[in-house]
Amino acid sequence: CFQCSLCSYPLHNLPYQVSRNQPICEKCYSEKHSNNCFMCGQVQKSHCVRVFNKVWCAECYMCTLCNKKLTTKSKIANFDSKPICKKCCEKMPKELKKRLLSWSMPSKD
């Protein structure tokens, strides 16, 4: 069955997009490629950060735990698809730290 590679919705006779040679339904494509800030919902025309498949405006891009402002040079870890700073990650119990993804660097849009 011809389906969306992200949500498995059947795409027979429906419009779709292609990303990395994979079919993606219109809904998933717009969610993945949207420039709305994940936190405030404002459309970002410039100076946004894309990390963990989400867009963040400069004002909202901060550590989820301590609210420290982050930059594109900040080392961050993935905590439930939200960024946490290195300092907060280091304070976490060992078991939880092991489950966090490796350090990530965001990309500028």
UniProtKB/TrEMBL annotation:
Q: Does the keyword Zinc apply?
A: yes
* Biological process (GO), any one: positive regulation of substrate adhesion-dependent cell spreading
Q: Name one GO cellular component term.
A: cytoplasm
For this chain, one GO molecular function annotation is: metal ion binding
Cited PROSITE patterns:
LIM_DOMAIN_2
Residues forming the LIM zinc-binding domain are 35-95
Protein keywords: LIM domain, Metal-binding, Zinc
Quote the protein name from its UniProt record. LIM zinc-binding domain-containing protein
Record the organism: Steinernema glaseri
